[in-house]
Amino acid sequence: MGTGRVLTDARDLVADLGKWSRLGMHVKRWILLLVIACTGISLGIAFILVQLYRTQPFPEWVFYVTLQPVDRTWRALLFLTIGILGVGVAVVQLNRSLLLAVQPPYEQGRLVDLVYNYRLPQRRPRIVAFAGHRGFVALQTHRDRFGEKLLGIASIGDGLLPLGLDEPLVRSATDRMIRPLDEVLEVCAELEHGTILTGAPAIRARRGGVPIKRVFLTAVGQDPQSVIGGTTGLVTHTDAPVRAEAIHAIREADVIIFGPGSFYLSILPNLLLDEVAEAIRASKARKVLIANLMTEPGQTDLFDVGDYVRALHAYGGFTLDYVLVNSASADRVISERYAASLATPVVADSDRDVGGSRDTVGLGGGHTLKKIGVEDNAVILAADLATRMAERVPTPHGSRDATPGAPSTMSIVVYRHDPAKLASALATLLGVS
Prior knowledge:
Structural class: alpha/beta
Strand content: 15-25%
Largest sheet: 10 strands, mixed
Distance between the termini: 39 Å
Number of domains: 2
CATH superfamily of the largest domain: CofD-like domains
Number of strands: 15
Oligomer: single chain
CATH class of the largest domain: Alpha Beta
C-alpha cells in the first residue's frame, strides 16, 4: 500500500470521526449508554470472577490465561482495547446487516454517510452536466429541487461553439453552460465500412445506413486520416488544453450527469478530451446517465441502455453509478411518427440481471422510481420522465403548408423530457428532500 493511499485513508477516517461527533447525529448518546451498560456488565462479571478466584481452587493454567505475570496497568489497557474494538466492529457489522434489509435498492453508501445525510441539513449537491443545449435547459428549469448549482459543459459537436467563445451559452444566478475549449475542434465520425463524415452537420444529417464505428476530433481543416490513420484502438483522445473552469467544476462536483442530448454530438466528444476524461475518472462524484427518450436515426439506431453504458465506459474509462430511463410510453400518433423516421424508444434490456428484486420507490405526484436492472455495475432506474409538447419546425420542402418563396414553420407534437418529472426523479435518486 502506497504512502498516498495511507494518507487518503487517514484523512477519510478523520472526516468520518468528525461526522460522528457532530451535534444532532443522535448517535453519541446511544454509544454512551452502550459504554455504561457494558461497564456495568463487566463489573458484575468481574465481581463474580473475583469471588470465585478467592474462594475456589483453579488450575495453574488460569494464572497464565488471565495474564497474571503482566503488570496490572498493561493488562487493563489490553483488555480495554480489545473490548472497544470488539464492540465497534460488532455494532458496525450489525448495522450493515440491518441496512441491507431496509435501504432502497438504488441507495448505496457507508453507514456514516447515510446517518449524516439523514440527520443533518445538507448542502445540496453541486452538479456538472454533459448535455445538449435543450437537455441542459430541462435540467436547469427545476434545478433548485435537486441541486445547489448546475454547470453545463457544452459539447464540441453541438454546433454552438462558433457563436462566440468568451460568453456562457446559458447563464443564470447559479447555473451556467460553458465551452470546454478556447479553440474550435470538429467532430468526425467513421462508419463501419470506413467512410468518414466531417463536422456535426454531416453526422446530424444521417437518417440511417451503415452504423457509426467511432467519433473523433480534428482541428478545423485537418485531414481526418491524419488523426486515426494507423491507430488500432476504438477511441482516439486529444490533448487539447481544457479551460481551467471546466476541470475545476468536475473536480468539485458531487454529481456528474450525462445527458439528455445527442449521444455522438453532445456527450461523447467531450470525453475525447484527455483532461476531461481524466478528471471524471478521478472524481468521487456520483455519475448518472439520463438516457434519451428515443434513439437518433443514423447515429444510435437500435441502441438499448446497455449500449449507451458500454460506450461511455469505452470513451471515458469510468463506471456509471446510475442510469435513469423513461418508463412511460408515447401515444400511438407520436410513436408512429417517430417510427416513420426510424427512431425507437430507448429501453433497458429486460434479459439483464436485475441484481435483486425489482423494487419500487414512491415519488411525489404519483410517479415511481423502479430498479429494473444492473448494467456494468450501473443501477438502471425507470421512471415516467416524458411529456408531450408542441414545437415549431421548418415546413418540409414541397409540403402543401409551405409558403412559396418564403421560409415557413409548422407546429408538431414531440416527445421530450419533462423538467418537473426529471427534477423529481433526480431529487429522489440523490436523496434531496
